[in-house]
Design goal:
Layout (H helix, E strand, L loop, with lengths): L1 H4 L20 H11 L3 H17 L3 E4 L6 E4 L7 E4 H25 L4 H4 L5 H5 L21 E8 L5 E7 L6 H14 L1 H6 L6 H13 L7 E5 L8 H11 L2 E3 L4 E4 L2 E6 L2 E10 L22 H7 L3 E3 L16 H9 L10 E3 L3 H9 L4 E5 L14 E2 L5 H14 L3 E5 L5 E6 L2 E16 L2 E4 L4 E4 L15 E8 L26 H34 L5 H12 L10 H15 L7 H20 L4 H24 L4 H25 L8 H8 L3 H7 L6 H10 L7 H13 L5 E2 L2 E2 L1 H14 L8 H23 L1
Parallel strand pairs: 3-20, 6-7, 6-10, 10-11
Antiparallel strand pairs: 1-2, 4-5, 4-17, 8-9, 9-10, 12-15, 13-14, 13-15, 16-17, 17-18, 17-19, 19-20, 21-22
Length: 787
């Protein structure tokens, strides 16, 4: 492929693939030769394999802006960034040193504060910093360390050396995405990946997992990932890491502090939490002592950390280390604290709260970026808050100089970075694009360990400001290549012996979402079945005012279900509600189930806009029912039969029972219009069963017997109550001290009531009372397990 040979680095900019002499770096030669042997279709097929994997796995990031937020496909740049093992060893050495330095700094800021006292750190950068949390001053973290998991944004400058652009210590993101980048890229280049000695990532995560498990004070304590929730832009990663490492995924509302200890509310009661991997900004974690406006925190969490009963990853208040202006003081602090120079220097930074530094910045505006001193973002991530001096006219420069004089303490100047470029695939050939690397460090029992890779953020064009994902940037895998074979590690035990661990306790919030997922899905199915029967008859009569269709319309309207549009908005609302419930339990939901549900929602929205009444709506309803059946089949066949599945099943059975109870109560009267009983059988998917079981035409008693009282009909009311009783019997604490729980007693009473009924005794009043008691059963379940 001649197009590969035409690759040219941008002039005056370091390139990852081409060295300063214009030669291909040795670590890239294997990949370049491999690509040169492929034709364009072969490469396109390989890239499609990676994209298909990411789509099937449900990998997304949440984009902000416009009318709202949206989930977007993960923007993979398919060509990995290649770095030689020897060069990576030097980078790792510098990052380990940096992690140790940051630990010293944050411990001092919240401890003796000698750095400020000795003049190594200006007091305003601490006292006026919004990330300085006074309630945690003097707090000694459990385990003795503030930092456990960090990331660093690094870039290669024009001189070929690596520089740290930003430190991430608050709640570093991206490690889970790095794993998915690796899987996707390895699938695209499976034969190449097998040939090259690329360091694996599993050992990094396995060691960190074992470290956190070791930090528990007892085996009964849980390790959990603390997430802000499904609206967060990196929520997929939170759920992915929780699944991958076997940790619980929790939100602030899942936790309660009791006697200074953090407990998670589960359907089995309160259970202790020993380690929290925090993915929530520290100020939001505790509305009692930190931000009182936080709705995602847990009151008393700071006190629990203060008492040493829980280890926080990372420590509360560690976000102060991300302050942009702090980079200006790290070289001197490193020499004073560690007795050595920074092995991996920071991007040149000047805090403008000092006269000499402010004058320097003002005198060199052409090569400066001016921005907020307390910002925690690199200049290309801060969405226009920074000013590039070289882009200003003379009058504007005078204005900037005045700005520096009056607001200097709030500003920092940084040398404008020209990032190195890396190859991307663009229009059938390789092209250079600016990039930075996000590298991760984890504290282990043996000290800091650097992930052998990470992920690259790559600009969508030649402008480094487009690196950020929200600005359209892409992400690429990073291959650390050794000259020798590398260990192929996994998270599986090293030998064939194993212990069958019982699944962890189910948080009440997760149970609540599973329960309502079941209800919303079944509610949607019931609505679709009624609509299909209505439109099938409307297609024959072309008159919505017939007694039967009018009666069904009245019934639908009593449930706030409209006939127009043909696929009504209320149905879309139910499906969207099911999707939302599923989105809040992504760590407990299979990718296949999620994709099936998302596809159902997409199809329903399309039908809502264009389907017409009659035959068109009948066909559309059949398609939706098939998709619902596919989703239900995935759940039934693949979901582990444990507590979560039981709540999902109870939700489905209860909603199906309510659907049939209401339907029969409204339509199965003595004065039902002609065709009502046949329509009921069709809605209840029981036409063939009725023909086999009763040698008579449809009548009220036969339809009632089959749809209300038959214990073998999976659509009957009795069948649902029988299933509910069975599942409730297996829930935690169904028996307490030999006594039935209130929920089990109510389920058993309701089951017994209908078991004694006959078709003749099922009157509209009985159906109404049955509906009320089913709703009461739902209330008792919520009071017992979900509140």
């Amino acid at each position: 492929m001649d197009a590969l040979l035409g690759y040219r680095p941008l002039p005056g900019i370091a390139d990852e693939m081409i060295d300063p002499q214009g030669k291909v770096r040795p670590v890239w030669q294997h990949l370049l030769g491999y690509l040169g042997r492929q034709d364009e279709q072969s490469i396109a097929d390989r890239f499609a394999t990676a994209d298909r994997y990411l789509s099937d796995a449900g990998v997304f990031y949440r984009a902000y802006g416009g009318p709202g937020t949206s989930e977007r496909d993960w923007p993979l740049s398919h060509i990995p960034v290649m770095i030689a093992d020897a060069e990576w060893a030097k980078i790792s050495e510098g990052l380990v040193q940096r992690a140790e330095l940051l630990e010293h700094i944050v411990a001092d800021i919240y401890g003796d504060c000698r750095l400020v006292r000795d003049g190594l750190l200006p007091p305003p950068l601490v006292a006026a910093n919004p990330e300085f949390l006074r309630p945690v001053v003097g707090l000694q973290p459990s385990g003795g360390h503030h930092l456990h998991f960090c990331s660093f944004e690094i870039g290669r400058g024009p001189d070929g050396n690596w520089w740290v652009l930003a430190d991430r210590t608050q709640a570093p993101s991206g490690a889970g995405f790095a794993l998915e980048n690796r899987v996707a890229t390895a699938r695209a280049f499976s034969d190449l990946y097998a040939e090259m000695h690329v360091h694996r990532l599993a050992s990094f995560f396995g060691t960190f997992r074992d470290t956190l498990l070791n930090k528990r004070q007892s085996r009964e304590e849980r390790v959990a990932v603390l997430s802000p929730g499904s609206a967060n832009e990196t929520y997929f990663e939170h759920a992915y890491l929780a699944r991958y490492l076997g940790f619980m995924l929790l939100e602030g509302e899942d936790l309660v502090v009791v006697n200074g200890k953090v407990m998670v509310s589960t359907v089995s009661g309160l259970k202790p939490v020993g380690v929290l991997w925090r993915r929530v900004d520290a100020s939001f974690t505790d509305p009692l002592e930190l931000d009182q406006n936080s709705y995602i925190g847990t009151p008393g969490l700071v006190q629990a950390v203060r008492s040493g009963s829980v280890m926080m990853v990372n420590g509360l208040g560690s976000g102060i280390l991300e302050t942009r202006a702090l980079l200006a003081f790290l070289p001197r602090i490193c020499r004073e604290v560690l007795g050595e120079d920074l092995k991996l220097p920071s991007i040149a930074t000047w805090w403008c709260g000092q006269d000499a530094e402010r004058s320097h910045v003002a005198a060199h505006l052409d090569r400066m970026v001016i921005g907020p001193a307390y910002s925690r973002l690199p200049f290309f991530d801060d969405k226009g808050q920074s000013v590039l001096g070289a882009s200003l006219r003379d009058r504007a420069k005078e204005s900037i100089a005045g700005w520096l004089r009056t607001e200097g303490a709030k500003l920092a100047g940084q040398e404008a970075v020209t990032l190195s470029t890396t190859p991307v695939w663009n229009d059938g050939k390789l092209a250079p694009r600016p990039m930075s690397l996000r590298v991760f460090a984890a504290r282990t029992l043996d000290g800091w360990k650097i992930m052998p890779g990470g992920f690259a953020r790559i600009s969508s064009g030649e402008d480094a400001a487009a690196i950020a994902m929200q600005a359209g940037g892409n992400a690429a895998d990073v291959w650390i290549v050794s000259e020798k074979p590398v260990e192929k590690t996994t998270l599986l035990p090293p030998d064939s012996s194993f212990t069958r661990n019982m699944p962890g306790s189910l948080p009440s919030r997760a149970a609540d979402n599973l329960y309502w997922l079941g209800r919303y899905i079944e509610r949607a199915e019931g609505t679709i079945r009624i609509l299909r029967a209505w439109h099938a008859r409307y297609a024959e009569a072309a008159d919505a005012r017939t007694p039967l269709l009018g009666d069904v319309t009245d019934y639908l309207e009593s449930l706030d279900i409209e006939i127009d549009p043909a696929i009504p908005n209320s149905l879309i609302t139910n499906i969207e509600s099911a999707l939302y419930s599923a989105s809040r339990i992504r760590d407990r939901f299979s990718p296949d189930g999620w994709l099936a549900l998302a596809d159902l929602a997409k199809t329903a929205r399309e039908f809502n806009r264009k389907v017409k009444p009659g035959d068109d709506a009948t066909r559309a309803s059949t398609i939706l029912l098939r998709k619902l059946a596919g989703f239900a089949g995935l759940v039934h066949e693949n979901m582990y039969r444990f507590t979560g599945w039981r709540f999902l099943t109870i939700g489905r059975m209860l909603e199906r029972g309510l659907h049939m109870t209401r339907l029969l109560g409204h339509m199965a009267g003595e004065d039902a219009p002609d065709g009502t009983y046949d329509m009921l059988l069709e809605i209840g998917d029981s036409v063939m069963t009725h023909r086999r079981r009763y040698n008579v035409a449809t009548a009220r008693v036969t339809v009632t017997d089959l749809l209300a009282l038959d214990p073998l009909n999976p659509r009957s009311i009795f069948y649902q109550l029988n299933e509910i009783k069975t599942e409730v019997e297996h829930l935690p604490n169904a028996y307490v001290d030999g006594q039935m729980s209130p929920l089990y007693r109510e389920a058993l009473r309701l089951h017994s009531t209908i078991a004694l009924m006959t078709a003749d005794t099922m009157t509209p009043e009985v159906y109404k009372e049955l509906e009320r008691e089913m709703e009461q059963l739902s209330d008792v379940l919520a009071q017992t397990y979900l509140n």
